[in-house]
Design a protein that fits this description.
The structure holds three protein chains of three kinds.
Chain A: H1 4-13, H2 31-39, E1 59-61, H3 71-75, E2 81-84, E3 89-93, H4 102-106, E4 112-114, E5 131-132
Antiparallel strand pairs in A: 1-4, 2-3, 3-5
Chain B: E1 12-16, E2 28-34, E3 37-44, H1 52-56, H2 61-68, H3 78-91, H4 97-125, H5 129-150, E4 159-160, E5 163-164, H6 173-195, H7 198-204, H8 212-217, H9 222-227, H10 234-237, H11 264-288, H12 300-309, E6 311-320, E7 323-332, E8 339-343, H13 345-349, H14 353-357, H15 365-371, H16 376-379, E9 385-386, E10 389-390, H17 395-411
Antiparallel strand pairs in B: 1-2, 2-3, 4-5, 6-7, 7-8, 9-10
Helix pairs in contact in B: 2-3, 4-5, 4-11, 4-15, 5-6, 6-11
Chain C: H1 2-39, H2 49-58, H3 70-90, H4 106-126, H5 130-163, H6 172-177, H7 186-206, H8 218-221, H9 231-256, H10 262-265, H11 269-298, H12 304-335
The chains are: A alpha+beta, B alpha+beta, C mainly alpha.
The structure holds iron/sulfur cluster (2 copies).
Protein name (chain A): 4Fe-4S dicluster domain-containing protein
GO molecular function (chain A): 4 iron, 4 sulfur cluster binding; metal ion binding; oxidoreductase activity
Pfam family, one (chain A): Fer4_10
Chain lengths: ~130, ~400, ~325
């Protein structure tokens, strides 16, 4: 009988675990309360794993530079961008965006970029944080 | 109860799936059992159809590229690669050599992470969770490098029609090289843990057999075919992209010194050795990568109009981690393709389940099912639902439907 | 009225010990999970995780499948728990003699150990699910399989005591009072070591742990015998599992490592009881880690056919070999 794993696990007990720790050590009774405390500096969280360079997170839009050319809408695979005729500007629904950054590539003015922000979950897809305009 | 003692009990039916811990994706199995032995096996895919081709035929190629990224949750570049190659043939685009090398590098990194992911899943199916954690921990290295090159872990968004969207600069080489060296060191350990372990060997040897003839007749692809001794590999048989410049040959189980049995064990051997092969390929590509642009046409509006003007049809192929992936595209001078058909590699492999499973023990069902590395969400193309009831379509029905559709297309 | 008093004390002690036993059993499960996690390079749950799980399970309703036999289905977890606790009451804990020691012996313990497994089988068949049925069949097969090596261990121990002239060779009290290692020569030591190793392989089977967890086999049978169990019933099974772990450890300690700390330090009274009990628990933890945690972390799951072959052929032979060595040893020593 050859059981090479047995050696491996005995060696592993004395090494550091590979798990990335959760933000909090134990699940707090209320996550929102806990986050408030963190905001106030009363509690600490394990920081999230760092994002790599060129990470594609929540989209950023520089409204003033936009010329309303509509090119971004043409290439957006998720139909996440809407054109507002009155202002000749666009509106991006982050809840629908698939973070491909194709719109960034095509924008002639370079007013669209991807930020490293990725903690975007909410319950309301039309919340303020979910709409970029 | 145990093998050898035939029970007088009538065969009973054990259903597995569509949702079951042994299955990572939905598919339904029905087994006629006699004691612990599977007498008859049947399966019904089509539980994860998402209508992605329908969506694609309403979008332009640049948009579709990003949808192809999401056909599979593991292969983030396979489908985009195959699709881009189809479009490039129709529009007559010559992809810059530099970009071809980057495509190959990322495709091979994908093979590494996919095979390691599979190795973990296989270990889990065997009840060997420690090995599962270990394999996935090792896989993280490849994921990190993919993230480092492309920006994201799963949906790489790297391929563009006519090239790639991000370059691999010389500053990035050391990080990539470090990862490759790590894998080279690790390989011996992985081979030892997977192939020398007695408990794995007794579960996997002579289990889920697929003979050479069956593998060939059922048109299996990828590691499933190679483990049965069919030397089939799109990268070698029809060299494309930068693969033509490389000196590679299909990996057969004999590379590990054994005979070809076509069992689960051989499938482990093939996949682990392919990880080593991919490491070599990436290394060569990094060294020999020619200089040049990364895109055929950096101005995307121009690319879009070139695609719009093009007419014709083409097939794009790529050797995915699970075998040949094929995209058929037809363009007729519109923004969106007239036809887009995706054949994922698992589609060719699913039918090998039946000969593999029949006569095996119920306990071996999970590992045999997992051994072809099925990817069902990529595969499912139809889900026929009439009312609340599922319907089976016979060959005649399908023929009738296609005749009708051809008439419809000819009409317009 | 004296007997009434004794009865009352016995009942109170039994209840107290049951509660302690349940708590210790759950702690054992927690330690097992934690250590296993560290072996797999994970952080693992906190030690009190089994208690948290139990609290959650007990707060949930029982779901009884439509085609189950409710009476049997509901009785199974209770029987499983009750019988595991009863075994505990037969075990000496440190220097504290078993509460029910006067009423039964090792043979009875062996029988009682089979009851939780039988309850699982009954519950599995009663749940009316094909997975549970297959699981129950497998549970039966593995029970029959590990009984042979276990029996050879019991016989070896009883033989040793008997041949050394100890009265009541099957009583656990006499086993603890006469550490078996002191009764044998070099050949017997080898035999006992073989038996100890056999026992180390029987324990995970008795506890349905990987590689012998074929009756539950998560990836094959989705939990097998337990697939239809939920809520409180599943909670009871969890507790039974904890107590059983404690019992198997306790049994190993009683048979193979019965030494106590108190004679060494000359302790007496309650201090001695406490110290010995703590030492007993430490020994149980160590044995459990070696024979359950390590094995379940370092091996893949066997097929049921492998389980049968392993226990009937390999461990059966090992057990009988160990037994013959022990017998041979005592016979040889009788000659010289
Ligand atoms: S990142 Fe992609 S999905 Fe998101 S808005 Fe831009 S083009 Fe659309
Ligand atoms: S492509 Fe750029 S400039 Fe044009 S509409 Fe979009 S954001 Fe504005």
């Amino acid at each position: 009988m050859a059981l090479p794993m047995i050696r491996e696990i005995f060696a592993q007990v004395f090494k550091r675990p590979a798990t990335n720790p959760f933000p909090a050590r134990f699940l707090p009774p209320s996550v929102t309360e806990f986050l408030k405390k963190v905001g106030a500096g009363e509690a600490t969280i394990n920081p999230p794993v760092a994002t790599p360079p060129n990470f594609r997170g929540k989209i950023v839009y520089d409204r003033d530079g936009c010329i309303g050319c509509n090119l971004c809408i043409r290439v957006c695979p998720a139909h996440a961008i809407e054109f507002i005729p009155e202002t000749k500007r666009i509106r991006i629904y982050v809840a629908q965006c698939i973070f491909c950054s194709q719109c960034n590539d095509i924008c002639p003015k370079g007013v669209l970029t991807m930020s490293p922000e990725f903690l975007l979950a909410t319950e309301d897809r039309f919340a303020e944080s979910q709409i970029v305009e | 109860m145990s093998e050898g003692t035939p029970t007088k009990k009538a065969p009973y039916v054990v259903p597995i799936g569509p949702i079951h811990p042994a299955l990572k994706e939905p598919v339904q199995f029905l087994f006629d059992m006699e004691g612990e032995v599977v007498k008859k096996a049947d399966f019904a895919p089509g539980q994860a159809h998402r209508g992605i081709e329908w969506m694609g035929m309403r979008r332009n190629p640049i948009q579709i590229i990003h949808m192809t990224d999401r056909i599979c949750g593991i292969c983030g570049v396979t489908h985009s690669f195959a699709f881009a190659r189809a479009i490039e043939q129709i529009v007559d685009i010559e992809v810059p050599a530099h970009a071809e090398y980057i495509r190959v590098i990322i495709a091979e990194f994908e093979r590494i992470q996919s095979h390691l992911l599979w190795a973990g899943v296989a270990a889990h199916e065997l009840g060997f969770d420690t090995l599962f954690y270990l394999a996935w921990r090792v896989r993280e290295e490849a994921m990190d490098v993919i993230e480092y090159i492309t920006g994201n872990r799963v949906n790489y968004g790297l391929i563009q029609v006519g090239g790639v969207r991000r370059d691999i600069t010389p500053e990035q080489h050391p990080t990539i090289q470090k990862c490759l060296d790590g894998y080279r060191d690790l390989l011996g350990k992985m081979l030892n843990l997977f192939l020398k372990d007695t408990t794995i060997a007794i579960r996997c040897k002579d289990c889920g057999l697929l003979s050479f003839e069956e593998a060939r007749n059922l048109c299996t692809v990828g590691p499933t075919a190679r483990a049965s001794g069919v030397p089939k590999d799109v990268r070698v048989d029809y060299p494309y992209s930068a693969y033509g410049d490389l000196d590679i040959s299909p990996i057969l189980p004999t590379a590990y010194g054994g005979d070809i049995n076509g069992d689960v064990y051989d499938r482990i051997v093939v996949r682990l050795l392919e990880v080593a092969q991919s490491v070599e390929i990436i290394e060569t590509c990094l060294k020999e990568m020619p200089e040049g642009p990364i895109l055929w046409e950096p101005k995307l509006p121009k690319l879009l109009s070139a695609c719009k003007k093009a007419q014709g049809e083409a097939v794009g192929r790529h050797e995915a981690p699970r075998g040949e992936c094929l995209h058929y595209v037809a363009m007729d001078g519109h923004e969106a393709p007239a036809m887009w058909k995706v054949k994922a590699s698992s589609y060719s492999n699913l039918h090998s389940w039946i000969p593999m499973l029949e006569g095996e023990q119920l306990a071996d069902v999970p590992i045999i099912v997992a051994s072809i590395d099925p990817c069902l969400s990529c595969t499912d193309r139809v889900a026929v639902i009439r009312g609340a009831k599922r319907d089976l379509m016979t060959k005649e029905d399908l023929h009738q439907l296609s005749v009708e559709k051809t008439r419809r297309i000819q009409g317009c | 009225m004296l007997s009434m008093d004794i009865l009352l004390v016995t009942i109170l002690a039994a209840i107290g010990l049951s509660i302690i036993g349940i708590a210790l059993g759950l702690i054992l499960l927690g330690i097992d999970r934690r250590i296993s996690a560290r072996m797999q390079a994970r952080i693992g749950p906190p030690l009190r995780q089994p208690f948290i799980d139990l609290k959650k399970l007990l707060s949930k309703e029982n779901v009884i499948p439509e085609n189950a036999i409710p009476s049997l289905f509901n009785a199974a977890p209770i029987v499983a728990l009750a019988s595991s606790i009863v075994v505990l009451l037969y075990l000496p804990i440190g220097s504290m003699m078993p509460i029910l020691g006067g009423y039964g012996d090792l043979i009875l313990v062996m029988y009682l150990l089979a009851v939780p497994a039988l309850a699982m089988v009954a519950g599995g068949f009663a749940s009316g699910s094909p997975y549970a049925t297959v699981g129950a069949q497998r549970e039966m097969v593995s029970m029959i399989a590990y009984e042979l090596p276990l029996a050879s261990i019991v016989i070896a121990v009883a033989w040793l005591l008997y041949s050394s002239g100890v009265a009541d060779p099957f009583a656990l009290t006499s086993i603890v009072a006469n550490p078996i290692w002191s009764l044998v020569g070099p050949l017997g030591v080898v035999g006992l070591i073989i038996l100890l190793l056999t026992f180390a392989w029987v324990s995970p089977a008795e506890l349905s742990k990987i590689p012998f967890d074929t009756p539950e086999a998560e990836t094959e049978l989705a939990g097998g015998v337990l697939v239809e169990y939920s809520g409180k019933n599943l909670g009871l099974f969890t507790v039974a599992q904890g107590v059983k772990t404690l019992v198997m450890g306790g049994l190993a300690v009683a048979i193979f490592f019965p030494w106590n700390l108190s004679p060494l330090f000359g302790l007496t009274g309650y201090v001695a009881l406490t110290v010995d009990a703590a030492f007993f628990f430490a020994k149980v933890i160590l044995l459990m880690i070696l024979s359950v945690t390590v094995i379940r972390t370092g091996l893949a799951r066997f097929r049921i056919t492998h389980v049968v072959t392993l226990f009937w052929v390999w461990l059966g032979v090992a057990g009988l070999f160990g037994l013959s060595l022990v017998i041979l040893d005592s016979v040889l020593r009788g000659w010289f």
